[in-house]
Amino acid sequence: MEHGGHSGHGMMMDLPPFTLSRGLEFSGEPFFLISCSLGIALYGWGVLRLRRRGDAWPVARTIAFVTGVLSVALVMCTKLNDYGMVMFSVHMVQHMVISMLSPILLLLGAPVTLTLRALPAAGRGRKGPRELLVALLHSRYMRIVTHPAFTIPLFIASLYALYFTPLFSTLMGSKAGHIAMMVHFLAVGLVFFWPIMGVDPGPHRPGYVMRMLELFAGMPFHAFFGISLMMASEPMIDTYKNPPASLGIDALSDQNAAGGIAWAFSEIPSVVVLLALVYQWYRSEQRQARRKDRVADRDGDRELEAYNAYLASLQARSR
Hints:
Elements (H helix, E strand, L loop, with lengths): L19 H4 L6 H24 L5 H18 L3 H4 L4 H21 L2 H8 L10 H9 L2 H6 L2 H16 L3 H6 L2 H23 L10 H24 L19 H48 L3 H17 L1
Helix pairs in contact: 2-3, 2-6, 3-5, 5-11, 5-13, 9-11, 9-12, 11-12, 12-13
């Protein structure tokens, strides 16, 4: 028996009831398996290139990036991807991880900074990959797609315009459509969190307070989306209205669980990003303080001497 739009995948519809161990079995989805392997290989090449040159690259950044890539592989290259086709709750785990957790980890790995440092300069008057990347980073296109006026509505529309219109069922009807949707979720997460994280260079460099405001601007909409699924009294998404009998699940209960997952995930990245921002802010203040100390040492505390002389002149005048 065929349900919804899944028949285009040629996948087994009689999946056994979901358990975590079944969900985490390796499935080797080719597109994401190749993409994730390539991502780690290229990042490793960049780090090795820097090391051979005698330049340091923080181990924490490498760990963050690799963990980010593995988090994508975890939800896309395992049976979670199969169960996500027939269970809304599992699909929501995929969506939340790939759009809110993976992008943060990938961005903490500073892949753009690493690429700029690893790629050789092409030489005067010539354009190589490094120069093309710099041109892209400074382009009008990049200024638009990373601007809060674009990223925040896109972040919100990726939930409401996708799930509450026939577009979702259309995309879920083919393997290519499903992959395109997941790539879109990852891309939206990256452009939303990129200016907020501020680790890599980009067209927008908002201050720390502005970054926090950008972060919290999208989260209430995310939470409301989750709550609307949790509170619904009937299944809202056609694709998941008739789950295979072999799963032994109720469509409405599964949808309510999906809503709970969406709601909870809107909180987790907020806390992670907030901690990262506070840490970056602290480090930035420390650097500024050290810079001022160096200037003071170099100038022989000229500012302090001038201020003391000014106080002395005031004292002399008042006598």
